[in-house]
Amino acid sequence: MRRLLRSRIVFIFIAIAIPTLGLGQSEVPFHHLTLSGGAGFTTSAAHLASTLDRGGNADVNSGYFFNRHFGITGNFIFSELGVTRATLNAANEPDGKGKLYGLTADPTLRLPLGRRFSVYALGGGGYLRRTMEFTMPVAVTVNHKNQHEVQGTSTMVMATTVGNSGGFDVGGGVNMPSPWSDDVRLFLEVRYYKGFTSNINTTIIPITFGVRW
Question: Which terminus of the chain has a lower count of CB atoms within 10 Å, N or C?
Fold first, then answer.
């Protein structure tokens, strides 16, 4: 499964990058400051894959480029993942979720491909936080304006574990022209995060699609 995921990631980048090679060298307007935001898919990796499953992510990034090719970017990522059935069974809990927060600083190298496309690579380090909650549904009754009762369900958190650590990330992506403005680009990005949390290291691979200014 992990080998198949890596193959799909490589295929995505090749499919985007190859058509742009050798095309005209029209350039995106250069600005020192950059800002981006996106969302996508996250999968756990290494030993964490036996505890946390797949999920989604949201990403916010800003930075400063000294020239067209080199800059420093700061990145915040949030991922919410499911808990594997084996972990739930071992804890004798019906449900759960994991939340991952990352804040990193990354030197970034950007290279133009042409036709307003570019590729970039980055790597750095920072802070990662991992929480895992075991939950169960409970029935609740609410008095509505003191006139009648409303039946419903809510989620009760039965137990929580928290891990904070330093870590590093490496990755890369493709910037693509947008239909709105020369100053706005779309991007597709893949990163590898590893946090040195206790018991089990935090290892995730987020794939993010978003908008960059």
Answer: N
